[in-house]
Amino acid sequence: MMVDLSGNGAVSPGHTRHGQGSGNTGKKTSKKSRTKRGKRGRKRRNKKNIRNNKTPPPYFPPEAEEGNIEYKLKLVNPTQYRFEHLATQLKWRLQEGRGEAVYQIGVEDNGLLVGLSEADMRASLKTLKRMAEKVGADITLLREREVDYDLDRNTRKIAEVLVRKVPDDQQFLDLRVAVLGNVDSGKSTLLGVLTQGELDNGRGRARLNLFRHLHEIQTGRTSSISFEILGFNSKGEVVNYSESRTAEQICESSSKMITFIDLAGHHKYLKTTIFGLTSYCPDFAMLVHAHSVPALLRPAGTTREHLGLAMALKVPIFIVVSKVDLCSRGTVERTVRQLERLLKQPGCNKIPLMVSGADDAVTAAQQFTQSECITPIFTLSSVSGESLELLKVFLNILPPLSNSKEQEELMQQLTEFQVDEIYSVPDVGTVVGGTLYSGVCREGERLVVGPTDEGRFLRLKVGSIQRNRSACRVLRAGQAATLALGSFDRSLLRKGMVMVSPKMNPTICCQFEAAIVLLFHAKTFRRGSQVTVHVGNVRQTATVECLHGKDELRTGERAVVRFCFIKHPEYLRLGAKLLFREGVTKGIGHVTRLLPPSQNHDQNQNHDQNQQEH
Q1: Distance in angstroms (rounded) separating the CA atoms of residues 262 and 578
Q2: Which of 19, 224, 307, 544 has the highest local Cβ count within 10 Å?
Q3: DSSP-H helix ranges across 115-160
């Protein structure tokens, strides 16, 4: 914490030093002498404050009762009763952090950084390790820092320790990271290096295992959505496909799982990228930018567009500058400066945080989720491995956005599963992939799926469940998985459907109203315009039926608009984020009202009558 110790060294204008006159020359000399005396006075006061130990102590924010961060001054030789209390407290912090907690040792509850001697620090860490073992967790020392504000004492230290539960029954912490960026920026190669544990050969060998289609292998460009997993065990060590591990072994050994959603970078696959961002509900977004890609310099470059999409959907974003082995240090610095200028523009209002060391990576991971403005920036190479470890440290410490209380509230609601993918698997039958929005889903559970083109919901039974390519008995809110539906007719299913509990009595709509802001339009946005609407896993063309209170919209204007799907009804939720586009036309908003099919006909008749009267 920086405090201004400078005093006011100015002297009263009426006072002059001995030998000074009252003319103009005297005034100039008096001003200079006052400045010199002010500087000397500040130096004397600073030295006096240091001698008198008046340097202000550094502080953390006061400890919060909720959350997964705990301050402890010291944990030296606690009694058995005190130890049991500390273990219970640790269990609570782990529950708040969904299996993770951060302990700051040597810090008082009000946030004062007191620090501990070497002996007390060793004893405190030993006690914390015993506490972790009692609740089934491991500890990892993230960093130690010296607290040297008091020069009369010996140097003291504070320690930051990560406590993480040992995995049990597949209850690992799962974070989803969407990977964005321009074509040829190295997104798939970076994911291949992270998940396979081997560096790239400079010609894209690391990305081959990620591609799903032959044309992707031939062109080296992603055109579909693929998923890759990276695990961390309770000690913070990387668990990936190296050492011939299978996906099931990675899940069994990991306490924390990062699921990367590899999205397409080419502009012609933009609708697939938007679908991945809206449907799979990523917790974070990683924007990969190569120094050699000129898209950042173009007003409508893919890098800018992906950044804008993530910000519009309020997905926290961090940036990775790749391929730094192909250019000089100066080129990398120029690229970073361009990114910083882009992030600081009025439309973004972000605070770039350059990560150049392990300490920066820890700080970035903690501040990233606490402030919407912080945007960490990494510079690395998938060929030389430069700074790759810093990204792993960041991902290892990155906390979840939601706490256990919010998770429990979602699990108490009725089951709602979004259908994002549909497959036919030999000897298994129809399989659907997607995300469980709310509730709990178990093997053998009976649900209804819809809406169909006629607006009906059909009964079905869930067979087996797989999560991250390994068998799973219970699926909880917020988790992505694939569900086997047995002999259910695949032709009755489509992307955008939902599988819900029969108790829910789901409502569907052909028309809905949304409060929108028009981000860009070449001319004017008016009644009769057709756009592609993205709401969660729903993607369908809709017609603008009317603009409340306005005849037309221009870029930057807001309005409440009624949309009508042109093909079939959909299941929507009030308050859901909405994104629509058509060519260069783009807009965002949220759903404010649903019009059931029975009201649609009446609304249209009233609107036509009003138009005829006018």
Answers
A1: 22
A2: 307
A3: 118-134
Residue extents of the structural domains in the chain = 69-165, 173-401, 405-500, 508-595
The token pair that represents 106 in the structure block? 């040597």
CA-based diameter of the chain, in Å? 106
Q: Assign a CATH topology to domain 69-165.
A: Translation Initiation Factor IF3 (3.30.110)
Q: What is the CATH number of domain 405-500?
A: 2.40.30.10
- The superfamily CATH assigns to domain 173-401 is P-loop containing nucleotide triphosphate hydrolases (3.40.50.300)
pTM: 0.82
pLDDT at residue 83 in the model: 95
Give the integer Cα–Cα distance in Å for 444 and 462: 5
* Same CATH fold assignment for domains 405-500 and 508-595: yes
Exposed / middle / buried, residue 130 (Cβ in 10 Å: 0-12, 13-18, 19+):
middle
- Side-chain-side CA neighbours of residue 261 (13 Å): 24
Cα distance between residue 539 and residue 533, in whole Å: 6
Tokens representing residue 461 in the block = 């039974």
Going edge to edge, which strands form the sheet with 173-181? 238-239, 226-232, 256-262, 173-181, 284-290, 317-322, 374-379, 351-354
From start to end of 345-439, where are the E strands?
351-354, 374-379, 416-425, 429-438
The reported pLDDT for the residue numbered 545 is 94
Distance (Å, rounded) from C-alpha 242 to C-alpha 165? 23
Contact by Cβ (8 Å): 18, 30: no
Q: Which residue has the tokens 């009317």?
A: 546
Q: What is the pLDDT of residues 62-105, one digit of tens each?
A: 998 888 999 999 999 999 999 999 999 999 999 888 899 999 99
Three state DSSP letters for 36-84: HHHHHHHHHHHHHHHHCCCCCCCECCCCCCCCCEEEECCCCCCCHHHHH
